[in-house]
Amino acid sequence: MPTLWKFTQLQEVELLSLSRQQLHQASQIVAAVGRTYKPKVKDDHFANFRWNSDREMLQGHTIEARENFSVALEIKTLSIHLLTASNNPLATFELNGKTQKQSLVWLEEQMVKLGLDGNLLTIKLPYEIPTYPTAKRKDYKVENPDYFEEISNYFSNTNLVLNRIIEGDTNASEISCWPHHFDIATLITLNDTGDSATSTSIGVGMSPGDGGYNEPYFYLTPWPYPKVADLPEIQGPGKWHTDGWLVVF
Hints:
Elements: H1 13-37, E1 50-52, E2 57-59, E3 69-74, E4 79-84, E5 89-94, H2 100-113, H3 145-166, E6 176-178, E7 183-191, E8 200-207, E9 217-223, E10 240-241, E11 247-248
Helix pairs in contact: 1-3
């Protein structure tokens, strides 16, 4: 696994945000494959991704087909890749200048080639995300490629940090990127009671930005949420966020 920290330099926040919004929409394409062709599960975890350090992509779960494969999103080029079980390329679709519908038509064709029912594939989401222009027939556009590479570097660096944090910790979950919020994180269980409502844990991760904070940030979130009045003072540059969800970042 690569161990080098990638240089990042936050520039125009708005341009970074526009790139991130397109990537968030594009990640739903990758998530749709796992959600369609893997078993249905309550927590939707077959729709999430892992960071592929060798190829520097967000990679979905392996799908059993005529040839086992996975689908991945290459952030820095805004492209969708089909990879074999040994991580070799099968097919690539560059989203730049293409619509969401065109990407799904291409993906359906690839599913048929692999012996799957392409008609099953749907982008219907079990959650809400912002309504981006790319969801309304607007083309994806890579007008500022440096900003896509910047976001890719954030994911790469976060994966590196999280691997160091959870190394040898059997109570930490696999590092995953979830398409709902497009954040990458691990969940460290402190006390497992067998009930998610009463078990205690800390989520550790990074968001490339969202509706509340329009730039990348690292976060820690305790569960169950303590009372706001009981929150300790933060020593250092972090701060508590208490509106809607509780995190320190």
